[in-house]
Amino acid sequence: MSENNRVIVASGLQKQVIAPAANNASEILSILTEINLQVAAGVSVAITGASGSGKSTLLGLLAGLDVPTAGSLQLFGQELTQLSEDQRAALRLGKVGFVFQSFHLLEHLTAVENVLLPLELAQVKGDLKQRALTALDQVGLAARAQQFVTKLSGGEQQRVALARAFVTQPELLFADEPTGNLDRHTGQEVAALLFRLQHDYQTTLILVTHDESLAAQCNHWYRLADGRLHRQESV
Amino acid sequence: MASYWQQWVRRWRLSEMRLLFLALWISALAVAAVGFFTDRVESAMERQASQVLGGDLVLSSSRPLPDEYRQLATRLGAKMAEVVSFRSMLSVGETAQLVQVKAVSTNYPLIGELQAANNLTAAGVKAQLPASGELGAEPRLFHALPAPVGATVKLGRSEFILSSVVTKDPAQGVNFFQLAPQVMMPLADLPATGLLSPASRAEFSLLFTGSERVIRELKASLQAKLAPTERVRTLQEGAQNVQQALQRAGRFLGLAALLSVVLAGAAIVLTAASLVRHETAAVAVLKAFGLARRRILVDYLGNLWFLALVAGILGALVGFFLQTLLAHWLVQVVAIELPPASWTSAWVSIVTALVMVTGFALPALLRLLDTSPMQILQGSLQAPTALVGVFMLSILPAIFLLMWIQARELSLTLWVFLGLLVAVVLFWWLAKLSLNGMARLSTRQGWQGLALLRHGRRSLLLVVVFAMGLFTLLLLTALRTDLIGRWQASVPADAPNYFLINIQATDQANLENFLKQQNIQANLYPMIRGRLVEINGQPVTADDYPKPEAKRMLEREFNLSSFAVFPESNTLLAGQWFDANTQGFSIEKGIGETLGFNLGDRLSFDIAGQRFTETITSVREVRWDSMQPNFFVVAAPGSLLDKPYTLITSLHLAPNQPELIPTMIRQFPSITAIDTSAVLGQVRSLVEQATLAVQGVFAFTLVTGLLVLWSALQAQKPERQREIAVLKSLGANSRSLRRRIWLEFLWLGGLAGGLAGLLTLLAANLLGFYLFDLGLSLNPWLVILGALAGAGLVATAAWLNLRSLLQVVPMVLLKT
Ligand SMILES: Nc1ncnc2c1ncn2[C@@H]1O[C@H](COP(=O)(O)OP(=O)(O)OP(=O)(O)O)[C@@H](O)[C@H]1O
Ligand SMILES: [Mg+2]
């Protein structure tokens, strides 16, 4: 793995939070103790772990949504810990996609408008509408483009979310339990779609999941426990 | 990025956005409607007042006025009429009568209309000025002479025909205590009479009307040039009775308008908070996708401002329309012509919407920007809670600004603002106390029904909002009732319509007898003329006072009186009224303020060459619109009766007693009777206008209050929907859900109403006392009535608003 094609380099990442407890007291909670991780461009990385082990926290740190308590983290070669919230946001703009467990589509928008959103945010030029429709077509939802997302089923909503994530052809995609809210069958469909798109666009993928069969399909698999990542060999 | 328009259209789909629009629109509508309406009523009242004055500005002098002033007025574009008035003898054959001659230019009157009749029994109709060689005269001249209409009379060197009975001269109110009957003649005929020599005493007046700007400029230019004998009067210094009514009505209208703005503000804050709750997820997602805070802020602000602009414009339009309807309807009820509305109110309503959205939504929005994108990965989204500091820095100044825009009077704004702050804090505290008490009670046997109030924060918010709304309505109702009752009492149907002056002391007993025989109620007051010469032993002259009204008071003689019975139309403010043994003066509050004396000071008057000195022992407030004889200074009963005096009284004469005055004058020839029914009529129609305005504005405030109630409920709808779905999934049937809604809101409404009633009781007394000169009254019914009205109103509104939620299918739970 050469120096310059590493998308994420994390070393010695720690995350502690002050958790308010009863009686107005508060205690320091150490969620991540020592995270070292390097991710090369185009690969897929799975992170699994027990509920509450800190997977989402780690994902948020890697994406620059939050800052670590200690350690260093580079995203696209930029040291994130030095940047302000807005500077970190600018780094993500147009280059990073997200897929969430509970979809987080904007309810008052139609399917195509949700997909348009990241294109508009990144101020991409050209026929945005066409690109959005193409992205919806890729996830098999061209026919539902004009519907409000609240009218769609869970699986369909997650497919819209996939279209939204891939429409900017991001270099890096974060997915937090993308199949967590779906039944087994639908989950498999969505996962297949995710891997296909990731392969087509050569996107780097960080996938947090409970589903070991999903994790096994990734190039690398780490298990998060005691605030550390443990390399897991695919079976 | 998509165009703002596109974004706006998308965001419009948010129910909060529509609600915000509704709240903004309603407040803009209320402001516009109230503004347009009060504007019209105020200008109607001002017009009435300037009619009494004769113009918007009157310049008068005891010397002929130089042409320079006429040219100035023409140059500035003011309309002008000219009046010369003086006393003279008018004769028919052998009989002569002192008359007040009023020679007027052809465009008199500038405001209002002259009414006259062809004979003494006919009602007056709109009439032209007397033609050259003709005179119009008050009815009492025909009685006094006596002479028929059409008689030839002699005035100075000229002969005139007494051609008409003037029943209404719009500008007569100015000179209320006019002794002689008035005769109106064309100004062009005046020189021929030879009555005006340089030495003769006359008042020369120029009456002006024009736009506010023109009058302002004219006044300023005139004041720079005035000779010592000349003075300028404008509306503000016009007849006192008119002014007092105007002031009170204006204050009430201002208060009503600004309370309705505050009510609408509450709706905006509620809706903005719920918008933020909804948008938290969206902002977190946008941030995750890499959007900077600044762009998010600009984007939301742009959207909201556009929303406010549209709401403001629509509000102004619909407000104008509503106001037209209301004015139209009320004009039919009370038959008063309202002048057209000005467009200022449209601007005010648009500015109001913009200030509201900025001031009320901004703090919530700024907090929204702090939403951590991390939240999106955690299960639950926490809506940011507004910081107290931001709240103070944004919402409070916004409310203050809005109030100020409405009231345009800093001190009133300040007081109401502080009052509202105290009210909110009190409501918050009392509501919290009561709700906690109820929650504790709900754990006891038999009180489980109260359990549904345990939803602490939500209930607290509702109670405070409802209480504020109900408080506003109750307060305005209480004040309105007092105010209108008081006005109507001030000009009752049997208010005096005649003044009798110049009653000789020797005639007193006989006149009292005469009036008693005619069943007429009248109090005779002695009237003594005196000049104020010393205050606390220090000589005073007009030169000691910079204020023109103070100068004027000292240049004239005062009318002093002395009597034992405290007049009904007065209020004792300080000190003690006279009893059998006391000496002293009782003064009117205003004159003390103008001339700078108060309780305990010693005043010396020069009465017919003799010095009369007493200490001020009481201060009264006088209702000048009472149509009763009123005096600035009253001495202890009997103390002045050794001085030369005449008596004065006022009485009410029914229309079926037209012979009474002529009979009385024949019997007591020295008495001068002044018909004040024209003035009375003007005061009465003024009161009608004020009442009209107050009713109209109150109606608007009522509607605003109801709509705030509605938006408070609307803001909680999503939460309640989920709650009802959960209850349903747990097996609640619609009957029990219905019962739940009714019970909860009956309690909340009752609590809010009771608290509102309690505070109204306090506030109405305070406000009534300080702003409207009303007495104190403690009415426990207000609390009970408030609780009942609150329970009924809130529960009904809640039911109508939440009814549709009962249809919710519990499936929604699985969707989000
Ligand atoms: N801001 C915070 N304050 C307090 N505790 C926090 C905070 N953020 C995370 N935690 C705690 O840290 C732990 C890890 O949370 P995280 O959401 O990362 O777990 P997870 O591995 O994603 O769990 P799951 O599989 O259930 O999604 C949890 O116990 C959570 O309660
Ligand atoms: Mg998680």
From TrEMBL, chain A:
Domain of life: Bacteria
InterPro entries: AAA+_ATPase, ABC_transporter-like_ATP-bd, ABC_transporter-like_CS, MacB-like_ATP-bd, P-loop_NTPase
Example of a GO cellular component annotation carried by this entry: transmembrane transporter complex
Domain (ABC transporter) ranges: 13-235
CDD domains membership: ABC_MJ0796_LolCDE_FtsE (cd03255)
GO molecular function, one term: ATP binding
Keyword vocabulary terms for this entry: ATP-binding, Nucleotide-binding, Transport
UniProt keyword Nucleotide-binding, yes or no: yes
Annotated family: Belongs to the ABC transporter superfamily. Macrolide exporter (TC 3.A.1.122) family.
Protein name (record): Putative ABC transport system ATP-binding protein
Organism: Thiothrix eikelboomii
Organism lineage: Bacteria, Pseudomonadati, Pseudomonadota, Gammaproteobacteria, Thiotrichales
TrEMBL record, chain B:
Matches recorded under InterPro entries: ABC3_permease_C, Membrane_comp_ABC_pdt
Membrane-traversing stretches: 252-276, 297-326, 346-366, 386-406, 412-431, 460-479, 692-713, 745-772, 778-802
GO cellular component, one term: plasma membrane
Signal peptide: none
UniProt keyword annotations, A-Z: Cell membrane, Membrane, Transmembrane, Transmembrane helix
Span of domain ABC3 transporter permease C-terminal: 255-373, 697-806
The organism's place on the tree of life at top rank: Bacteria
This protein's record includes keyword Nucleus: no
Record membrane topology: Multi-pass membrane protein
Subcellular location: Cell membrane
UniProt protein name: Putative ABC transport system permease protein
UniProt source species: Thiothrix eikelboomii
Source organism phylogeny: Bacteria, Pseudomonadati, Pseudomonadota, Gammaproteobacteria, Thiotrichales
